[in-house]
Amino acid sequence: MLGGKRTGSRHVAVVLLMCLFWYVISSSNNVIGKMVLNEFPFPMTVTLVQLCSITLYSGPFFNLWRIRKYQEIPRPYFYRLIVPLAVGKLLASVTSHISLWKVPVSYAHTVKATMPLFTVVLTRLFFGEKQPTLVYLSLLPIITGVGIATVTEISFDMMGLISALISTMGFSMQNIFSKKVLKDTNIHHLRLLHLLGKLSLFIFLPLWLYMDSFAVFRHNAIKNLDYRVIALLFADGVLNWLQNIIAFSVLSLVTPLTYAVASASKRIFVIAVSLLILGNPVTWINCLGMTLAIVGVLCYNRAKQITKGREAPTLPLSQSSHIKYQPLEQQTDPYYRGSVNGKLSNGLHRATTMTPSNSLLANGSGMPSGTAATRLLFV
Question: In the predicted model, is pLDDT for residue 287 greater than 50?
Fold first, then answer.
């Protein structure tokens, strides 16, 4: 009994520590990103640096952490879903940096609180999924809060608002369709992140060379080798990569609802830190709008939890893409629900071996279920 209490306390302590790291790294990433864009106004280049960070760091570290290798993905499926996902990630990342360049961090994150709204609308458009009335009502404080924050924003910029909305819509679409990819292919979450990062970089590099490269190389920070700007760019890329890794670790330790609440709390933390460090002017009505939007996100998560027991339509999958799981005979790790030996009926292979020495990072897509299970990819 005493050992169980100690284990539970240790688990809570680990979760709290990971959340603290997540909040600090995320807020640092946003503050540093804003500082970079203030001195180096090239959001496309900042996006390129982050994509390079995902591509360069993920492979060696994921191998070191013994995360299972890529699954075989049929070429038609790759072009039909993986490539559009990479393009969507690219578009969402670029517009996110444009919004961060044009408007304060606090306002950009307030606008991003509209992600539940886009999720509800897009799932209805693509899959005909209807939500209970309670879920629709929970969207009202989000819309109201963002509206108040927009009207009262001192540093308002229309391009910044539109970019933030496009970015939020893009991340929402990725969360929806990445869930289908994870179910269809059984690819590891972090391997999918790495794959999308590499593919996005491959697609984006020619566009960056044509649109941004000449202006970047003529900028004083690059011509004069301003080590401060270069160091900030490097730090922004590393922090963005770490943010995704820690978000995955937190998700693997808690339920989807707890993760959703932690994510909303993280947004509050990022807004507060940006206001404290960057010191952009705000009014009390503006703060009220930000608070109302974040509270709306918490209400939305609670509404989804309340209605979870009701039968809800799932994402449409082909008959040949359903994954059948078999229970493990000896499951000593409560967070490990990795793949089992076998081959999927759609021709995709499961991993045949798993290394239990690192259950936190080695487990497969059998993580806590729900849409929150894909949020780690696009934070």
Answer: yes
208's tokens: 């960056």
Radius of gyration of the chain (CA): 21
- Predicted pLDDT at 68: 84
16-25, 29-38, 242-251, 348-357: the lowest-pLDDT one: 348-357
Task: Judge whether 145 and 113 are in contact, CB under 8 Å.
Answer: yes
Output the six-digit token pair for 110.
């307030």
> Could you identify the residue written with the tokens 């391997």?
191
- pLDDT category at 151 given cuts 50, 70, 90 is very high
Q: Are 212 and 94 in contact (CB under 8 A)?
A: no
Q: Which of 214, 223, 115, 98 is nearest to 162 (CA)?
A: 98
Helix (H) or strand (E) holding 172, with range, is helix 158-185
Q: Would you say 344 and 159 are in contact if contact means Cβ atoms under 8 Å apart?
A: no
What is the Cα–Cα distance from 4 to 17, expressed in whole angstroms? 20
Among candidate residues 193, 175, 229, 250, the one with its CA nearest the CA of residue 24: 250
Angle in degrees, CA 315, 80, 91, rounded to 5: 90
* Sign of the dihedral defined by the CA atoms of residues 297, 371, 75, 196, in that order: positive
The pair of structure tokens assigned to 353 is 């071996």
Residue 316 CA, chain-centre distance (Å), reads: 22
Q: Which two tokens stand for residue 356?
A: 């239990």
Look up residue 253 and give its amino acid: L
**pTM for this prediction:** 0.77
Tokens of 216: 């970047």
